[in-house]
Amino acid sequence: MNIGQAAKFSGVSAKMIRYYEQIGLIPKALRSDAGYRHYSQPDVHSLCFIRRARDLGFSVEQIGVLLALWHDRDRASADVKMMALSHVARLKAKIDELQAMAQTLEHLADHCRGNDRPNCPILADLAESIAAAEQPPLTSRRTPRFGVDTRASSRSSSR
Fold first, then answer.
1. What is residue 159's predicted lDDT score, i.e. its pLDDT?
2. Which of 46, 49, 110, 125 is in the most buried spot, having the most CB atoms within 10 Å?
């Protein structure tokens, strides 16, 4: 089948199929006398495998390893399970990050009046991170002294 048909059956775009060939994730397709790519049923199965792995969030590098394991009938399923569980741990960490981001934005939005006034805690929070980035790093290695070097003391002394 040609690249369009392979794309349709696998759910992988023709552009991505060419990319996967280019980076060596899948072997180069056989070519017709006219130079058109020709894909076999096993090629399309590999593309379906890649599509499913991408849907599950695996990186291209991880998919390369998974494909090699899939084609290796002497492999231990423990290797595959270890990869999957490692990926699950990364996904859960990313979920935690995203939930923390959502909670922060919800908190900021709850404190924004959303009126026609320019005061906005959301923008103030974003600008605060800019100000923090502009602060020079502390170069001394001495232990901060309470009442002199702490944030609380600098706030009270400026009043």
1. 42
2. 46
